[in-house]
Specification:
752 residues; alpha/beta; Beta-Lactamase; 4 domains; 16% strand; binds phosphoenolpyruvate; binds magnesium ion
Length: 752
């Protein structure tokens, strides 16, 4: 017998009343099943919920033997209930007992019922329970009835999760409050104990049942219109940098947002009497459940898109909530996000930030660089974490061992507390080395510099005991601004940096945007391969106004002081000449205006494009200094995108090809007597830094936190011995020297 369209709404209204009653959780559940049974004109309605061991326990029933409540359990996959749980979709059986999966439980007394329909109770696409209805007669349940049952299941899921319908213990189980461990890739060293903050706060849907369906329809239509409008205009503006979004994500959004199937499902959910928010949640759950069970890995990728889209809609419907950075943070925040741009990380209160966990992004991405600058423990590639955590969960980021612990047990917490104490002791030892000269056992002095990019990096110069700033990434100021920083703003920052550095040298690198460094306000054409596209010096030479403003700011800031300017991505000798000519022109203008000049001016080149390896004899005589950008040099040398995890870990810079390239540069710099540094991430890792010294580098620049460990390595190293060992190894090895170098360090007692 088909139910009228009004029936589910009536059911929902009654459900809301029951849930608002001040009774025990069990009493309310008992009423819920009676309500559903009578609404569906069925003899039986039962509710099963998943327990900690994975089995489904009968929690309430109308029609089956009351004694079996809390006594009947079915494993996942066992019986029709188990089957529905496993498939996560509604199923009906006109003659249930004849179905091969039927599992007879004598205690329930269900042998007299023939027809059976069940729907999963879904949360985040996972089955947390099953709701069933049975009739004596053999009958077919209509689509409308099943739809109404699904809507009811959704309302139950949300109410259970918010703790309103079952005991604390069960709702904790349903929230999956078990200790979990996830592997991840460390991108910024450290160990952090704290509490989870979701970068994009989840919207809790509390108003589930509609008072006025027409109103809900209008609200949803408006929200969808606003959303598609904002996505379309974001794409038209080429505004891909906002919130770390990429074009593909936007395109996926657009696809979903214009997808008729998706909109139809939303409409259907609304018709059953849900609010706009609840309809979005309901369709998200069903879509997730379907996608989670698809064998195709791309389907899983699309989970993110449906989540993002739903979150955006929910945010619009609830009047908009910004990222967590603007809300109140716990003292020990561990921020968890799918991806994040560098500027977004900087929005957080530094004092309260302990750790960062990302589902996606490479180790050389710019948010990783900012995390290192902030000195917070950070992991990336932590798959599935967003689904498994709740805000406020205790968490431990172990960026040494490469794992994240969520809701850790007491044993794990105390083990990590020990680890943190041990690290603090080690940090104290490094701090004690602060004023110790960095000289190897055989008397080779190695200059240790830090990489920086923002004002808050400056205290690190004193704390680390570094001799200067070997790389100041000027683009960070541009990346975190809402508009192009003006001449005055730039001048102010550069001046503050020079003031803080005092007589320690600072190497300012001219703007290196493009690649993964996108400026939110700068419209650039979409490029197939941005890392080898229009970036850095290429942009500077094609758009000299930008470059000249920056040079002008640097010249003004350095009045009466030394100024070092470094040019990124030089691939051809003429580029260095042209950029130098632009710098000289700015100096002439400065003089003409009678403004004070820098005491000295040095212009250097970054060696990070492999083409330069065969032009060293031409390019080095034109440079006042040179610095190897090993991040880019290696990515181009091995043709492996530094931001793409699939390939970036595949090639080791300690491979003979990488090391021979570096050796070539060291020898050429020596020949032309050009001061040489290396400022890529490898300089900050003790084993890699050791190798660089073995190859002849005597100056390197790294994240501030690496200075201590690298200095400890240097103090225990005999550079001469290592140089000879590397010479031998390079002659006879055709794969990474990493293991051989580790062995060398162990034999010689080098602290790595
Ligand atoms: C490099 O490429 O090694 C480098 C230091 O520059 P960036 O990481 O900013 O590209
Ligand atoms: Mg580079």
């Amino acid at each position: 017998m088909p139910v009228s369209v009004g029936a589910p709404r009536q059911l929902l209204r009654r459900l809301r009343e029951v849930m608002a009653e001040r009774e025990s959780a069990q009493a309310r559940l008992d009423k819920v099943v009676v309500l559903i049974a009578s609404n569906m004109v069925a003899e039986v309605c039962s509710l099963y919920l998943q327990r900690r061991d994975g089995s489904f326990e009968l929690f309430a029933t109308e029609g089956l033997n009351p004694e079996s409540v809390h006594n009947t359990h079915l494993k996942s996959g066992e019986g029709l209930v188990g089957l529905i749980a496993e498939q996560a979709e509604p199923m009906q059986f006109p003659d249930a007992q004849r179905h091969p999966a039927f599992s007879y439980r004598p205690e329930t007394g269900e042998e007299i019922y023939h027809s059976f329909v069940g729907v999963p109770i879904l949360r985040g696409g996972h089955t947390i329970g099953v709701l069933t209805v049975q009739n004596r007669t053999k009958r077919q349940y209509s689509d409308e009835e099943i739809e109404a049952l699904q809507t009811t299941a959704m309302v139950l899921a949300e109410t259970i999760a918010s703790g309103g319908l079952v005991s604390e213990e069960v709702s904790a189980e349903q929230r999956r409050e078990l200790a979990m461990r996830f592997p991840g890739l460390p991108i910024s060293e450290g160990v952090a104990l704290g509490h989870v903050v979701l970068h994009e706060p989840r919207i809790v849907v509390t108003r589930l049942i509609a008072e006025d369906i027409e109103l809900e329809r209008r609200r949803l239509a408006q929200a969808i219109e606003d959303l598609t409008g904002s996505i379309d205009s974001m794409m038209e503006r080429g505004d891909m940098a906002r919130a770390g979004e990429h074009r593909e994500v936007l395109e996926a959004f657009r696809m979903f947002a214009h997808d008729h199937g998706w909109r139809r499902r939303l409409d259907e959910a609304l018709l059953t009497g849900l609010t706009a928010e609840a309809a979005v949640q309901r369709v998200r759950n069903d879509t997730r459940a379907r996608m989670l069970r698809m064998p195709d890995p791309h389907a899983r990728d699309r989970l993110h898109d449906i989540d993002d889209l739903s979150n955006r809609l929910l945010r619009l419907l609830s009047g908009g909530v910004a990222t967590a950075a603007t809300g109140s943070l716990p003292q020990d925040a561990i921020v968890i996000a799918r991806t994040m741009g560098p500027a977004e990380l900087l929005d957080y209160d530094r004092q309260r930030l302990r750790g960062l966990v990302l589902e996606e992004g490479g180790a050389a991405s710019h948010v990783a660089i900012v995390a290192r600058a902030l000195g917070i423990a950070a992991l990336t590639q932590v798959k599935g974490v967003l689904e498994a955590v709740e805000p406020g969960d205790a968490a431990i980021v172990d960026a040494e061992g490469g794992e994240l612990h969520v809701r850790p047990t007491q044993e794990v917490v105390s083990a990590y507390a020990d680890k943190v104490r041990f690290r603090a002791r080690r940090q104290a030892q490094y701090a004690a080395l602060r004023t110790v000269p960095s000289v190897t056992l055989d008397g080779e002095r190695v200059a240790l510099h830090i990489n920086a990019g923002l004002l808050f990096d400056l205290p690190h110069l004193d704390q680390s005991g570094a001799v200067g700033i070997g790389l100041f990434r000027t683009e960070l100021q541009f990346m975190i601004s809402a508009t192009f920083p003006r001449l005055e703003q730039q001048t102010r920052l550069y001046k503050a940096i020079l003031d803080a550095a005092g007589d320690r040298p600072v190497v300012f690198r001219s703007l290196d945007v493009g690649g993964d460094k996108v400026l939110p306000y700068f419209r650039a054409a979409k490029e197939e391969n941005p890392a080898i596209g229009w970036r850095a010096i290429r942009m500077a030479l094609d758009r000299p106004a930008l470059f000249r403003t920056q040079i002008r700011a640097l010249l003004r800031a350095a009045a009466g002081r030394e100024l070092r300017i470094m040019l990124p991505m030089i691939a051809d000798v003429s580029e260095l000449k042209a950029a130098r000519a632009l710098v000289d022109r700015e100096v002439t203008i400065l003089k003409r205006h009678g403004r004070p000049e820098p005491k000295s001016l040095m212009v250097g080149a970054m060696i990070e494009v492999p083409a330069l390896l065969w032009q060293l004899d031409r390019v080095l005589p034109l440079a006042d200094f040179a610095s190897v950008g090993s991040n880019d040099l290696m990515q181009f040398l091995f043709a492996a995108d530094r931001g793409n995890m699939r390939v970036s870990e595949r090639f080791d810079p300690l491979n003979p090809a990488g090391l021979k390239a570096l050796k070539l540069i060291v020898e050429a710099a020596k020949k032309h007597e050009v001061p040489l540094t290396l400022c890529g991430e490898m300089a900050g890792k003790p084993l890699e830094a050791m190798t660089l010294i073995g190859l002849g580098f005597r100056s390197i620049s790294m994240a501030p936190a690496s200075v201590g460990p690298v200095k400890a390595m240097i103090l225990s190293l005999d550079a001469g011995n290592l140089g000879r060992r590397i010479e031998e190894l390079l002659e006879c090895t055709d794969t990474s020297l990493r293991e051989d170098l580790k062995r060398f360090a162990a034999e010689q007692g080098v602290q790595i």
